[in-house]
């Protein structure tokens, strides 16, 4: 996948060059523009159950495959303002992606879901993480700028749960309180996630959960 990322890190847009005879898979609703010889095919890709599992992971039930006979471009943009990052998978492992951060990939990448159990539930990311496997490129979107880290074996990185974007499945993770119950309640810090290498981890510099909480404070809803 040949991607040019512009207007980042605040309002990133990914322009994907599709070669003659090539294609790219895009999250439903993420297409901002097409240029040249480009056609679109909408499907569940993998059948009803695959579409259902993606939807449980926060993505659309459907995906769009953009094809080109003689070459063209597809521009993609995320819902929230922020950054994008291109990630390479070599086919030997999986990438676990938070709900809403997968935006496009090579057709060779399988986008499925993984049951997160209690750890994902308590991290505030829901019970499902998207699981991306295969060999190829994929495009991640974030709220705010996106930063990547490569952890050595045994090295630990701690993130606020609302700032997690993606991580390799070789990375172990556990969720805990940021401090004591007193500091958690009064200090404004909730749960954090400890990631232990080896592997890659990506974070976003803003939290959509914090944005929602701020909107609720400045525009409280009143029941009649």
TrEMBL record:
Q: Per its UniProt record, what Gene3D superfamilies does this chain match?
A: Mitochondrial biogenesis AIM24 (3.60.160.10)
NCBIfam families from the xrefs?
TIGR00266 family protein
What is the name listed in the Swiss-Prot or TrEMBL entry for this protein?
A: TIGR00266 family protein
Per the UniProt record, the source organism is Demequina litoralis
């Amino acid at each position: 996948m040949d991607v040019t990322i512009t207007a980042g890190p605040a309002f990133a847009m990914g322009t994907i060059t599709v070669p003659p005879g090539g294609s790219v898979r895009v999250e439903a609703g993420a297409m901002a523009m097409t240029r040249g010889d480009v056609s679109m095919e909408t499907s569940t890709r993998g059948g009803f159950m695959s579409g259902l599992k993606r939807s449980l992971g926060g993505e659309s039930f459907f995906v769009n495959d953009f094809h080109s006979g003689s070459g063209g471009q597809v521009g993609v943009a995320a819902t929230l303002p922020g950054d994008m990052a291109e990630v390479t998978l070599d086919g030997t492992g999986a990438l676990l992606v938070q709900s809403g951060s997968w935006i496009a990939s090579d057709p060779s990448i399988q986008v499925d879901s993984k049951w997160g159990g209690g750890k994902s539930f308590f991290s505030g990311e829901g019970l499902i993480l998207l699981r991306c496997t295969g060999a190829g490129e994929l495009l991640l979107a974030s709220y705010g700028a996106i930063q990547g880290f490569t952890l050595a074996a045994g090295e630990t990185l701690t993130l606020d749960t609302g700032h997690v974007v993606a991580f390799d499945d070789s990375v172990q993770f556990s969720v805990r309180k940021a401090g004591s119950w007193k500091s958690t309640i009064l200090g404004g810090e909730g749960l954090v996630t400890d990631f232990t290498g080896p592997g890659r981890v990506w974070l976003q510099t803003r939290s959509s959960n914090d944005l929602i909480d701020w909107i609720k404070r400045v525009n409280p809803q009143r029941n009649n």
